[in-house]
Amino acid sequence: MDLSLAAPVARADRRPLVVAALRDAPLSVDECLAAVALPEAGGTALFIGTVRDHDGGKSVVELEYSAHPSAEQTMAAVAREVADGLVPETAAWAGSPAQPHRHEGAHAHGAAPLGLLAVAVHHRTGLLTIGDIAVVAAASAAHRAEAFVACRQLIDQIKTRVPIWKRQMFADGTSEWVGAC
Fold first, then answer.
1. Contacts with 47 (C-beta within 8 Å, 6 or more apart), sequence order
2. Residue ranges per domain, the chain?
């Protein structure tokens, strides 16, 4: 079942492209990158979230992601907010630039913030095993700093605001549900 909203939003108004897709099949990193590949991009940031083999000192054997029927629309709305610069910058994180470069005309309400050109996020549902890709987020911008900031905001907002839940199955036969993403 492909619930994809993966067709990019037109850039007639010069707003950044937004792609959001919820899928029950393996995710393609190349597809997510292609969605943000634009000739004017000088930098592209990519995040790939994979299923790890442990959590909280317990051995994880697989995960199951479930999504509310509104999850894909919510994910698209969150991606649009990030693309339009409506998400406040979060506290500095290790290795990040203190402040992204600001360019002339870069941040008016509803306009592309900081030279951002496109964002894309694909999230998986269903049963995943160790090493499977659970989420792919990408952002392209005129400069790398803007792409890094947008990619970080995108994944952080998806994890906290989109109604996607995961059930972790452990090697000892127990399982637990973990809140939104």
1. 135, 136, 137, 138, 151, 152, 154, 155
2. 29-93+110-178
CATH of region 29-93+110-178, choose from 3.30.465.60, 2.40.290.10, 3.30.9.10, 3.90.1170.40: 3.90.1170.40
Round to whole Å and give the CA distance between 52 and 37. 29
Task: Sort 111 into a burial class: Cβ within 10 Å, 0-12 / 13-18 / 19+.
Answer: middle
Lowest mean pLDDT among 14-18, 79-83, 126-130, 161-165: 14-18
| pTM summary value | 0.81
Structure tokens at 113: 């913030």
Residue 32 three-state SS:
helix
